[in-house]
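Consider the record:
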Amino acid sequence: MSEILQAIEAFARCRTPQEVGLVVRNVLSAYGLTTYAIGGMPPPSDPNPTPFTFHNWPAEWSEAYLREGYGDVDPIPRAAMISAMPFTMAEMQDGQVGLTIGPESDAYFAAARSLGRGAALIVPIHGPFGYHGIAVFAGPTLSISPATRAGLHLLAIYAHNRMLELYAGGSHTTEPQLTPREIEVLRHARNGLSDDAVAAQTGITVRTVRFHFENARKRLGAKTRAEALLLAANHHLLGA
């Protein structure tokens, strides 16, 4: 628990959301948790994170999520909207959150397990004026005491609020906000390649190319693809 309290104190010294994420990751590693996602609640059935979203999940997960249509069967956003308290993925699957999960979600859970994200603590964050956020701390297994669970609940709230504060202050324009795959897709588009050509060049589907482009557009705060390319170039994200 002491490391959680020390992390909360460290958040005040962080100057970017990415620094907050690094502190969170270091704390989670002590509990066997490897990935996190913190941000605004995404719309139902939409795999694209909201503009305010920070995570360290692998690119394979984002691509599988889109390719297999997991947004249609992912129960976590729905469960987080009806729960005020943290819950684990196992509790959600057992119906303890008040959500009935059918067999259509089996492939989603299997994919999460295959990528080392089969267990998770999900923390709903409900703010003023109808705001809904979420923090997900995931790993291959999860075994924590009630006291640690309460500590991670507190960590999630403080990390979310500090990230949001820094994001609103303009730090969302820093380079780490785009993933390597998003940068790769934008770079190919900047060089004049069509979505089909980018897909062939990168070995992913056209749908996945469009997912990464749309995600990058949201992260950059751009209204159009052309504006996203311009902003990415202005922030020196695309290289020569």
